[in-house]
Write a structure and sequence with these properties.
Largest sheet: 6 strands, antiparallel, barrel
Radius of gyration: 26 Å
Strand order of the largest sheet: 2-3-4-5-6-7
Shape: elongated
Strand content: 25-35%
Structural class: alpha+beta
Distance between the termini: 89 Å
């Protein structure tokens, strides 16, 4: 009987040590994850600021837009929609003028961290991205 008690207490000790080890690993993982997210957020903000600084802003019907260059026609993107941009793609609405007035088209937009450019996909289901730029101040 004593051997059984020793055996179960040994099993409990092993379990407690393993559990403590898992908790320590989780703490370290959480700290590393927070550091990575802070670095990524800073990098995204830095990239976005460098891409949108000194760009011409158009005000149409009390809404601010950037003019997109590098596509087959003149598209405009809302300044507010770039607040949510990151390395992952986001859905945005591009506005353009026709005879009927201003219309919108859904697209996907992202920033490439390595090349520091905007990339846009006009098809919301395909991942065929094209490099674009915003109109700069003269």
């Amino acid at each position: 009987m004593v051997a059984t008690l020793n055996h179960s207490s040994t099993r409990e000790n092993i379990y407690e040590k393993a559990l403590a080890s898992l908790y320590e690993k989780k703490k370290v993982w959480d700290v590393l994850q927070k550091e990575r997210q802070a670095k990524q957020t800073y990098h995204n903000e830095e990239s976005k600021n460098s891409l949108t600084s000194s760009k011409r802003i158009y005000t149409i019907d009390a809404v601010k837009y950037y003019k997109v260059i590098g596509l087959d026609r003149d598209f405009y993107i809302q300044v507010e929609s770039l607040n949510y941009i990151s390395n992952t793609k986001i859905a945005v609405y591009l506005c353009y003028y026709t005879i009927e007035g201003m219309l919108t088209k859904k697209a996907q937009l992202k920033i490439d961290a390595k090349s520091n450019h905007f990339f846009i996909s006009m098809d919301e289901y395909k991942n065929k991205f094209i490099a674009i730029d915003l109109e700069t101040l003269n």
